Structure of Inactive leucine-rich repeat receptor-like protein kinase:
Amino acid sequence: MVIRPLKSAFFKVFDSFEELKLGICKWGVPLLFFWCFFHGSCLLQTHQLRSYETQVLLQLRKHLEYPIPLNVWENNTDDLCNLSSPPHMSIKCEDDSVTELRIVGDKPAKVSEFRGFPVPNQTLSPSFSIDSFVTTLTRLSSLRVLTLVSLGIWGPLPDKIHRLSSLEALDMSSNFMFGSIPSEMSRLVKLQTLTFDENFFNDTVPEWLDSLTNLTTLSLKNNRLKGQVPSTLPRISTLTELGLSHNLLSGKLPDLSSLSNLQLLDLRENNLDSELPPLPEGLGNIFLSNNSFSGSIPEQFGKLNHLQHLDLSNNYLSGTPPALLFSLPNISYLNLSSNSLSGSLPEHLKCGDSLSLVDLSDNRLIGQLPNCLGAAAIAGYNIMVDIRGNCFSIEDRDQHPSRYCKDIAKRRSTVKEIAVLAGVIGGIIIIVAFILVVGLLVYCKKHRKQEVLIQHIAPKVKQDDPPSGISPELLANARIISQAAKMGNQSALPYRVFSVEELEEATKNFDPSTFLGEGPMGKVYKGRLENGTLVVIRSLALHRKYSIRNLRLRLDLLSKLWHPHLVGLLGHCIDGGVQDDSTIHRLFLVQEFVPNGNFRSHLSETSPEKILKWSDRLAILIGVAKAVHFLHTGVIPPSFSNRLKTNNILLDEHGIAKLSDYGISIITDETEKSEAKGDTTKSGHVEKLQDDVYNFGFILLESLVGPIVSGKGEAFLLNEMTSFNSQDGRLKIVDPIVLTTSSQESLSIVISITNKCISPESSNRPSFEDVLWNLQYAAQVQATADADSKSETTSRPSFS
């Protein structure tokens, strides 16, 4: 706004070149000073990374096991943005953040077979974790261009890659990634270039690719992708290059004519077996060789005026090729070899001025060779022509007799007729067999029903109403999914039914010396079983009378909730009632004994020898977050409202956190209360889930400030949260132990996620997956800071 008038006035003052030179001497220095005053600097602009992004880059280098291209970072950590870029590494920064990162290693994915395990001298080591690597990578939130090529990265690409929401170009070619391309990547709406060449992805080409509305280049060559080419691809109107060659794709190639911007189509080395569809008129290069395409070459191909290279070799194409193909204005390479093309080419066929290679070998073409491909071409034009293996009427060019091509055509026709007849007969046989099988099944089912009716006639038993939002069938068939399957339920503690006499013996008839306390759910005792195992016995006072049948369904569901960070449920005892329709008044739950107290006691200044440093607190918080994430997403139906408090987080002898009092709402009257409120809808479940997030936010808060400050109440803490935004405020409210044992970056990450968890608006609170991710990253940052601090301490010279 100020500079342009100044420049205009500057040149109006001097009407001649000589005056201009004198003017520069006279006025140049003052004007230069004036320019600097408004712009802040006259020097070449440089970028200084924020310290945490520098730490992220160094952590990535460690994850990648110190590749040679990154050796230049060794002694330049203070100025990574302004390093001279070697051929295999470059970094670009804007506004103190990394926007481009390119690393090309020396580990190309060239192995004959890869089974998903590390390969010595080819992949990164067995200790490499692609999940941790991507978690760290996504902290570079301003990245627009990312190239990670030939680095030996192995494993399935994690969903969390979508957190790089600013990405415009992603190239992870020549690595060892396998499995599916994550569907969460559909959120990368700014992505323009996606390149995963030379990996081992072995699922299908994603159907969601049309969500990437700015995509121009899609290259997934040299993988093991299977299935069909997605029908959604033609919707990506911005696409200019499509490369899916050297995969295992099959079936029909969809109509791509709507892709008006497409210039390159490369589908070589697949198993595509349809007829050739219409293609966009703007295409310059088409490579469809080594497939199973059949039928004739569409006449529309003769109208592709921008076409330069066309390769349809090694397919099953038939008929006579369109004459216009040879005369396209820009065609230079035409390969139609190894098909079943037949008939004769026009005698006066015209060849385009750019045509330099024509390969018609190994077909069934007959008749005279057109002048532009025959002697005239050889004599006067620079066209390489290969016509071997045909039946052209020309001598000394490796041609078959004309009858050879005609006989082949007849044999093919006969074979085709036989195949059609065989298909009809086979279809009839299949239909008859199907009718017989269906008839047999109906007959067996009818007799089975009669047997069941005879054997299972019994009086009906009246069932209680099912718990809120949970049908009896769902309770009966409740199952652990995904994460539990990965952990292996074989690790779960054995579950059994106890008698009242066994519990009385374990607690010395519930002697006061075994009494541990009383909570809102009833009294808690410590006991010792006959085999010497220490246990905790909870006596629950039920506010509603349940039938034993209903209660057993609930207990069966609760018994399936096993996780390393949940207090194990060993069994139960139902006191009162024997028959299924009886009602009971007292229920005992038998749980494993966790000996090292609760989390709150380890945050208190009253027990200084127990107080945990920051890294230990993070480990405990991560364990609890994993447990709650499992309760929300790892079981059907999910378990919400899990009484999250620091008092309910117990520590075992190894300092491992275990959450107690979880899932109790399944068997207490809270279920009925929520039912009375009509809280059985999906929104009700979301509200409960957000309640857990909110309560976990206060666990995070108590971990930051300690139980003494947190004891002043929720309203006080919410009011003091603004203090976290300044250094002085943190000194005022944060626990001194946390301040002295944490790095600023790690602390800031946890403060940020805490603020989000205790947001008054439930819709603004994060998911538990996000909470867990942030805590894990904070732990990584803290571990790096601790290692650096230890290194500095050990390397410091000592003087006697």
